[in-house]
Amino acid sequence: MAYRVINNRRHVGLQQLSLFAQTGRGFLGPVKATKFITDAERHESMLISSTVRLLEGLDLTCAVGHLLNEAVQAQNGTYSIGASTLLFLVGAWSSAVEDCLQLGIPTTVIVSVMSEGLTSCIEAVVPLQVPIYDVFGHMDDTSTGHRLEAVDVSLCPFLQVPSGPGWLREKHDFEDATSQSLSNYSPSGRHATSPKFFTPRAKARIEKNTPQPQPQKNSLYTDSFCRKSALAHSRHFNRTDSSHWISRPDGSLEHRSSTPQSLRCNDLAELAVGLSHGDDSSMTLAEAAVRLQWQTTCLQQGDWMAPFVFDISRVLTCCLPGLPEAFSCVCLGYVTAVPMSSIILIKELQGQPFRVILIEGDLTESYRHPGFNKSVNVRTKLTSGELPEDSAEELWANCVLQVLIQFRVNLILVQGNVSEHLTEKCMHSKRLLIGLVSGSVLQAFAEATRAVPVAYVTQVTEDCVGSGVSMTLWTSPHDINKSSKATVLLTAEGVNLVTAVLTSPVSAQMQTREDRFWSCVYRLHHALKEEKVFLGGGAVEFLCLSHLQVLAEQALTKGHQACFGWLPHSSSWMASSLSVYRPTVLKCLASGWHEFLSAVMCNTATHPSAVEASTFIQHHVQNATDSGSPSSYILHEYSKLSSGLFHIDTSDDPELVPRVYDTVTPKVEAWRRALDLVLLVLQMDTEIITGLAHTQLKSQDLDGVVFL
């Protein structure tokens, strides 16, 4: 953790925010610096590369630490992405506010100008939104595999990532799903007609001797993906439609350019590459999960096709430490771990159709539905491990077993905990009992097998029993004999459930591997849900930086005329303070994005030092400011992304440079939450230092002032 002496004579809360934020500086950008965390109580260690895991491992005892944790948890709970951006901007803007205070700028002016400055930036970045059109419309045309050879995958006009084997990209080869009983995807991107690892041993031997079709390499990505844009100012930025004009701070009008046709995204592969943010292997699995879910939805709907919605609740993960990462794959169905003692039973039963019942809640003798209380609470203490024949649990287990025998059930999926004694009895009678199954899994199997979930086994009838479930045991060249768990795949015809099997040879990296996968999944989820993305790789932050630079210069030269309607009825003192201090506050707000871009560029090693990165950024900020329209400047530079203006070591083939995208709402909300937290701590510190009376204004002075 970063160390810095806190000056008690200054705003302690802002210093603490800046100090906490320094710990997550290495999490920005596609090349993340992992941190090693050790649990002092359980003596367990793991590697992390996310802000959420970092704050879970820190001892946040101070009030500011709790506020920071609440803000990060709120962002993560709502969007599951954007926490690293939030944490970094909290630190950058805390330092910026401290600089404003050192210059003697009133707190009310800082709060007002920064809040409205951020609102202005959010409006200014709208032209950088890229609409997503019908990415599933030509999914059937992707039956031919395409491979993107090793190239220098550049993330934006400002960031560059070294090429390597992990950046190889291959589009998936899909076949008609109606001819498949099982689907599986591996990180290589190849589609297999049957799973490579979830297959009986005899079948695996047959497949081993069967030649596999090789993916074709006859073309690159088509349509607009990886093409050099033909963007022209005369065509896209000189429109006369009044709907494309926006007001500038000096009262003049500026063109708000609509998104050019060449910047529209209509291909899922292009979208996935753009949202991978350097984690190509995890995004490959996430993209495969989307394709499998779309494929299943098409089969269920038949000729009637409703708009596809990526249901993230039907995506699961199963972590298998100890195996190489190349064994990671995506399977249609439910992959879970069962006790190793069940492996003999599974080998005997696999290949047979299963009759299944679904239990909502626990499957134990003491379980009662909420609100139901037993009339007598009796506990039996045993001196040995065996239950007496007339015990309540033994009688209950025999009753449950009789029900299973009566309805010929050999698979029980339970949402809650299960009785160990009942599990052993079921195993002896060749029945498999699996507990701690999520509700989405039960619902998926209920839809596929027509089973009806029940709360108690005594409620089971013939209509509640589902059929058609198949089970397959995990088999791989690297069987883990020391593991206490066996892995199985449960599937049924038409089941809308996708499981990503994540593997890692290092157990400490397993949590990071899973977090990275879910980040990619949520990026795709939000992008498909909103049907729009930002031009990524720092373009949005660069536009905010340039926009604030323009506002600051106009406010500096034109004084009161630069208010463009802010606080029109405020007092003369408030208006004069705003006109005097606005340029300084806007520049301090812009310094947060400047520091953000500089940190990302240093993390990705595109610039060896922060000084060179800062010089590079300032050069293009000045060019954007001089152009008169920063948004037009950004779009123009993207049109010549492969021209070498920002890239020294780009690929020889300019069409191999993909675009980078960012999600819209999660990014914007991360900005809002970061600034709200900083301004909240600022006002709390001010009340503690100066007293509440000194921060109160007269009623006529409060108009237009934002207090959080």
Please summarize what this structure is.
This protein has 708 residues and is an alpha+beta fold.
Detailed description of the structure:
The chain is α+β, with helices and mostly antiparallel strands. The protein has a domain at 334-371 and 388-496: GroEL (3-Layer(bba) Sandwich). The protein is 41% helix and 12% strand. The strands form six sheets. It has a six-stranded mixed β-sheet with strand order 12-17-16-13-14-15. Strands 7-6-11-18-10 form a five-stranded mixed β-sheet. Strands 3-19-20 form a three-stranded antiparallel β-sheet. The longest helix is centred in the C-terminal third of the chain and has 32 residues, at 572-603. The chain is elongated and about 90 Å long.
Topology:
Layout: H1 12-22, E1 35-38, E2 45-48, H2 51-57, H3 63-79, H4 83-102, H5 107-124, E3 129-131, E4 147-148, E5 169-170, E6 184-185, E7 191-192, H6 201-208, H7 233-236, E8 245-247, E9 253-255, H8 268-275, H9 280-301, E10 315-321, E11 329-332, E12 334-339, H10 343-349, E13 354-359, H11 392-406, E14 411-414, H12 420-428, E15 432-434, H13 439-449, E16 466-473, E17 485-492, E18 498-504, H14 510-530, E19 532-535, H15 539-558, H16 572-603, H17 610-627, H18 630-639, E20 661-662, H19 665-690, H20 692-695
Parallel strand pairs: 10-18, 13-14, 14-15
Antiparallel strand pairs: 1-2, 3-19, 4-5, 6-7, 6-11, 8-9, 11-18, 12-17, 13-16, 16-17, 19-20
